[in-house]
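As a representative case, the lines below give one protein's residues and fold tokens.
***
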Amino acid sequence: MNKILMQLFKFGVVGVLATVLDFLFLYLFTDVFGIYYLLSAAVSFVLSTLFNYVASMRFVFSSKFNKDEKSKEVLLFVILSVIGLLLNQFLMWLFVEKITLYYMLAKIVATFFVMAWNFISRKIWLEG
């Protein structure tokens, strides 16, 4: 398997685990604890993104930053993740409020868009 396919496979495994965490937290916060779905979506997104960062930088991407520049890497990751969060929130709102999808179904659709953003943006700006 060539390097990019192997990397895409690893990204997929980490992404699936992060997505499971995201959906689990979203469901728990919304249906079990009764938190508004957009707030639940934001919190679950942040928690799964933290997991995704650690796992991605350990198993998927080789950082272009040395130890002294680690804060730059984290800052870039945070910026890219905030853009992903904004995309997620907008799509969740659009699909739930305007298209009237069930919030968990809306999350599935939004996840595909955010996953594409995550891979492309991290590949361009975080990998050496």
Remarks:
- The chain has a mean pLDDT of 90.
